[in-house]
């Protein structure tokens, strides 16, 4: 079944990435044509993708989304399996983000965006107890979703064992950790950063299987960082260490 | 006029902070009573705040919000003025975040949360061209809004001049900056970090008035970091530098 993506950025990024078949683009007759819309039309023509100008009633089913008067029917995102990822990944020092029970679509979208910006090599998502890619995720990710492998696994704990067997180090974020996230060295290892659910955090079994458990030091006794913001702080610390 | 806050965390945090008058708490008869609801009832009793159990039809006007069956009428957030903030702030090295045209309520909520976690001393918001505190911001901030001064100013450029006159350094985030955000030293100055609008970035006049303009290095040519995630990376780098 096709997915629907909406918003100018999402449609444009999907056309640029070009790795998912786009079946049709619908553009509202009522929207103002700007540089992005023109670029979308141009790329659609080049790639033989049909686009149609339609009345705004066609957007009625999507009214709860911020669609900006443009939607596209697109082949669903292709998830990778972990073995294929590991075979294809030839980096000396890789980085992965593992999501353990993220429930909020906006958070998943923001995480995907930040991972692409920070050059993370892939995101591992469990097939259950975690939000999967939906229209909100596609939109919030601002098209980033087409620029990073999403790896779906049935068991996170098995995936972690496979990663460890392949020389990856597991770093889990947990509020009660002893080490701060900036106390470990990310620049001479391949690592997978595990981020937990908004409320429950990383599962106990995964914490136990981790090589490092790190926290973000909190001021004000207010321990309630949004998961994408927490991940951003940690992942960009690894970028900093690898660059300086 | 009163504000409405919704969700267990928001109501609980407002009771704990105790600096805004709560007029009434409405709890749905249909919700499951858990530790948070019990704590809310306990604190409400202690502080003489009325709470009522009501049918779910009372929540009909708030159905687009994730209210979890609990809302409260609360005095609107009090904004501070910059002069009062500067008089009260006695830290040797302070930190502020200045928002220049943030439009998205979820982003503002996440920024407030991260600022509280990182021990930022206050957030400066222009009275125009920026989202102000509304119910979505209150909810997304998970109550953080009660733990940090929000400073509303009529002119950002004037506020920046006042800050500079008081010995603060201005650090603006901009994608085309030459310096990386981790190349400057945050540990021996009071600084205000300016984050720009989701699309337009920091205004030209503010960039010109800044002491430092910094960027987050982007991989993959994908320059589209969510503003709260960008701020998180920079602000926690300042925390790291001040701690190590």
Summary tags:
four-stranded mixed β-sheet; alpha/beta; Alpha/beta knot; seven-stranded parallel β-sheet; 60s Ribosomal Protein L30, Chain: A; homodimer; 8 helices; about 240 residues
Describe the protein.
The structure is a homodimer of 244-residue chains. The first copy, chain A, is α/β, with parallel strands linked by helices and 244 residues long. The first copy, chain A, has two domains: 3-74, Ribosomal protein L30/S12 (60s Ribosomal Protein L30, Chain: A, 2-Layer Sandwich), CATH 3.30.1330; 82-243, 3-Layer(aba) Sandwich (Alpha/beta knot). Helix content of chain A is 33%, strand content 21%. Chain A has helices spanning 8-17, 35-46, 82-88, 105-117, 135-140, 156-165, 204-209, 227-243, and strands at 3-6, 22-28, 51-54, 70-74, 95-100, 122-126, 150-153, 169-173, 179-180, 191-196, 212-215. Chain A has a seven-stranded parallel beta sheet with strand order 7-6-5-10-8-11-9. In chain A, helix 1 packs parallel to helix 2 (35-46) and helix 4 (105-117) runs parallel beside helix 8 (227-243). Chain A is elongated and about 60 Å long. At the A-B interface, helix 4 and helix 8 of A face helix 4 and helix 8 of B.
